[in-house]
Amino acid sequence: MTATIALVDDDRNILTSVSIALQAEGFLTRVYSDGEAALKALADNPPDLAIFDIKMPRMDGLELLRRLREKQSTPVIFLTSKDDELDEALGLAMGADDYIAKPFSQRLLIARIRAILRRAEPAAPAGGNGEEAAPALERGRLMMDPARHRTLWNGEAVTLTVTEFLILETLAQRPGVVKTRNQLMDAAYQDDIYVDDRTIDSHIKRVRRKFRAVDPEFDSIETLYGAGYRFSEE
Predict the structure, then answer these.
(1) Which residues carry this modification: 4-aspartylphosphate (predicted)?
(2) What is the C-alpha to C-alpha distance for residues 136 and 144, in angstroms, rounded to an integer?
(3) Which of the listed residues 31, 100, 102, 151 has the most CB atoms within 10 Å of its CB?
(4) Is the dihedral angle over the CA atoms 159, 201, 168, 155 positive or is it negative?
(5) How confident is the model over 93-113, as pLDDT tens digits?
(6) Which residues lie below 8 Å from residue 77, measured CB to CB, with a gap of 6+?
(7) Pairwise CA distance, residues 24 & 234, whole Å
């Protein structure tokens, strides 16, 4: 099935050039010149992945992401300027899946898109016959269903992005075992794509915040300073 990519940027040249490049790779594209125009369209008809410029008039990419995350968890890549480190960190903390600094290689952008879309694919059914769903992961009060990209804590739904889901799944698969940031990067990104330590740290903070919204006492993701993170099964 052909993936649909939404592009939101006030730079018409970027919209045109990236859209043409994506269409040449077999993607369908939808383009929007500002956040306000994109918000309702993306909320009502989510694409498979969205690309947001951070610096836009009327509604910037950070505000667009914040409001979109209230309704859905569509994978999002941010386009940033090289000096926008604070915005990059804030975007990741708000639930973006990745970011690319301008000027960027279209080949790199397409590689990142394909990597995230592969991560977003549901787990293959056991036996490959399309009938028996892949088994859910249950650890104490946590339940994760990879086939449906569904997460429950104490029976309450917790909406995670693709990256957040893969990081938590990696930790929960082996409770008590410390996972380094590099191991979590490998699990979440699964391709030869560089991300720095703060990316994983921001995703972990976001996951904790989401779980504490349904359970203020949530403390099952432990930080071991200098080592990494581990999941504590209660």
Answers:
(1) 53
(2) 6
(3) 151
(4) negative
(5) 667 777 787 778 888 888 888
(6) 49, 50, 51, 52, 96, 97, 98, 99, 100, 109, 112, 113, 116
(7) 50
